[in-house]
């Protein structure tokens, strides 16, 4: 595979993995929690480094997963104690992310991680971080991590499809029929955390947030069917990566930034021209019947 194709494949996997997982957050009206988790996983990554002295592989995923679950737990605990939901997210998000930033200073120059890298990332460097086993190259580590996390997410969604669907649209009814709503909630938070950290090192927090929220929000405007929404979110994430990379090359700008902007453009078109919810379409219908 060429250098360009590895970058496009990485972007597509970020869009696909985060798009599918993030669409569940959009349906549950928990989009800003994705923003919080995408930043607080920095604490998990730094913590994993202190334990394993490595920023690659399983320890980083475990550390991010733990912090992601803790983020959701702290937000839920504050909210149930009377703190407004948005305020609870803001307090937990800033506190844990700031703690991660502070701990980075103790790492010093031992690794390539810093706050600029954490926020922006650099997808152009992905093809150089290769997985090698016994001298044989198997492609970028980021591609393997994203691919494995995507497969895990799809398997979990397939296994708990009915439980996720019922608890998303009617959590009270789900409790009555015995669906483990709390377990499904934290399972989803774990999936979001794993998706975030798999993409975090290569593309940074900004593109992760965009791909977790925007494709799902766009698909929400285009369909009312749960399964189609999941699929459409992944497709929009992939298209955003491809279009974004094309724009970035044409204008010689940030690749991750262009991909996030492309996702925003798709949302704008859906917001204006969606057959059922589009602003322009509604205006035309109102003029027709007035």
From TrEMBL:
Zinc is among the record's keywords: no
Cellular localisation: Cell membrane
Keyword entries, A-Z: Cell membrane, Membrane, Transmembrane, Transmembrane helix, Transport
SUPFAM superfamilies, alphabetized: ABC transporter involved in vitamin B12 uptake, BtuC
InterPro entries per the UniProt record, alphabetical: ABC_BtuC-like, ABC_TroCD
Coiled-coil regions, chain positions: none
Membrane topology, as annotated: Multi-pass membrane protein
Parts of the chain that traverse the membrane: 6-26, 33-51, 57-75, 87-107, 141-161, 173-197, 203-222, 227-247, 253-273
Family recorded in the similarity comment: Belongs to the ABC-3 integral membrane protein family.
Protein's UniProt name: Metal ABC transporter permease
Lineage: Bacteria, Bacillati, Bacillota, Bacilli, Bacillales
């Amino acid at each position: 595979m060429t250098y360009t194709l590895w970058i496009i494949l990485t972007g597509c996997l970020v869009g696909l993995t985060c798009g599918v997982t993030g669409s569940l957050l959009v349906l549950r009206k928990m989009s800003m929690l994705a923003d919080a988790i995408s930043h607080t996983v920095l604490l998990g990554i730094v913590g994993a480094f202190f334990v394993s002295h490595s920023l690659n592989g399983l320890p980083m995923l475990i550390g991010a997963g733990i912090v992601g679950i803790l983020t959701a737990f702290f937000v839920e605990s504050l909210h149930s104690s009377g703190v407004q939901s948005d305020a609870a997210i803001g307090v937990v998000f800033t506190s844990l992310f700031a703690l991660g930033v502070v701990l980075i200073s103790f790492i010093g120059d031992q690794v390539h991680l810093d706050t600029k890298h954490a926020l922006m990332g650099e997808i152009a460097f992905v093809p150089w971080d290769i997985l090698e086993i016994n001298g044989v190259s198997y492609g970028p580590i980021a591609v393997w991590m994203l691919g494995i996390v995507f497969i895990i997410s799809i398997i979990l969604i397939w296994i708990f499809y009915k439980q996720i669907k019922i608890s998303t649209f009617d959590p009270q009814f789900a409790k009555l029929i015995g669906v483990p709503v709390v377990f499904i909630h934290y399972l989803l938070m774990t999936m979001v955390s794993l998706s975030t950290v798999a993409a975090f090192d290569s593309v940074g927090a900004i593109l992760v947030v965009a791909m977790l929220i925007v494709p799902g929000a766009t698909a929400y405007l285009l369909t009312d069917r749960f399964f189609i929404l999941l699929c459409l979110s992944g497709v929009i994430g992939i298209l955003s990566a491809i279009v974004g990379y094309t724009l970035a090359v044409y204008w010689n700008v940030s690749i991750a930034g262009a991909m996030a902007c492309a996702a925003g453009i798709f949302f704008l078109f859906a917001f204006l021209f969606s057959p059922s919810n589009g602003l322009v379409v509604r205006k035309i219908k109102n003029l027709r019947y007035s």
